[in-house]
Sequence to fold (203 residues):
Amino acid sequence: MKGSGTLKPFFTGPFFTLVLVLALAPMGLRFAESQPFAATGENEGAISHKEISAFTVIGIEARTDNRREAGGAGVIPAQWQKFFGQDIPRKIPNKTGPGFYAIYAHYSSRRNGEYNYVVGARVKDETIPPEGMVKMRVAAGNYAVFTTDKGPLAEVMPAAWQKIFKLEDEGKLTRTYQTDFEIYDERAQDPQNAQVDIYVGVR
Fold:
């Protein structure tokens, strides 16, 4: 990855995941429409809520925290490089959709604590993970759904998470800190003109 002018990690801090989608074309991977959720949504002011059924993701996992990610010693960019560099998407069995997921789970102490970070694909629930991968069950429940603006991932992802943090700080968003996730589907093919959905577990 290093040395390629097309694969620049724009990760700039906590939660601000850059999907290395520029790697998709040379690796022969393509996004298509994401798997629809069994969910119903309603708008409450600027926040959309969806009741999500539990689902399963298989991928690769790392333990990290926001301070580490913001301080330049983060593991998230390396996880995406490993995901594509080792052709992990092709090794995940029983995928139920072509999009990719970034999951935040097992928080130790809310925003500033450690959490498990999984990048992977949605699969059939009974699927056994291949060696070196993990199986993550995304909890059912109420999620606040945020769709980023359309633009460079390096800009729209930080802006979206800053909005989430601001709403939380203002008491307008009460997070469960059980599981949160991002969906990277066909709208994220062009990292300079991308759009991503962020699902945040709320009470």
User: Anything to note?
Assistant: The first strand starts at residue 41 and ends at 44. The domain at 40-202 is CATH 3.20.80.10 (Multidrug-efflux Transporter 1 Regulator Bmrr; Chain A). The radius of gyration is 16 Å. Residues 41 and 181 are 17 Å apart (CA to CA).
